[in-house]
Amino acid sequence: MPTSARHLATLFALALTGCALGGCGTINEKLSAGTADLIPAWAGGLPADAPPRPGTAAYDEFMRERERKRLMPAAERGDDNKPAPKSQDATH
């Protein structure tokens, strides 16, 4: 089967596209991490109550507060994240 210029051009275009897309993942790694923070929650971004990213000052403060709460007795924590008790009377 003879190789024509059209086949070579198509193969070259596909190879160039593949290399360009492969490079996007490594070049834009830091850019995409920063851009993900700007996507609203309704569009699939981070929720408002998500913890801060590691390596930031806010993350260090978050971890110190978390450790402080962990060392406190459970009765004194006052967690707002406790699930509401489910009553069986409401289902019957």
Order of helices and strands: HHHH
Global geometry: rod-shaped
Please count the helical segments. Answer: 4
What is the alpha-carbon Rg in Å? Answer: 26 Å
Largest sheet: none
**Span between N and C termini?**
76 Å
SS-based class: mainly alpha
Total E-strand runs: 0
Note the beta-strand portion: under 5%
Q: Helical amount among residues, as a percent range?
A: 40-55%
Poorly predicted tracts of residues? none
Structural summary, described in words:
The protein is mostly helical. It is built from 4 helices and no strands. The chain is 54% helix and 0% strand. The longest helix has 23 residues, at 5-27. The radius of gyration is 26 Å and the shape is rod-shaped. The model has no long low-confidence stretch (mean pLDDT 77).
Blueprint (SSEs and pairs):
Elements: H1 5-27, H2 29-36, H3 57-71, H4 74-77
Notable features of this structure?
92 residues, mainly alpha
In short:
The protein has helices at 5-27, 29-36, 57-71, 74-77.
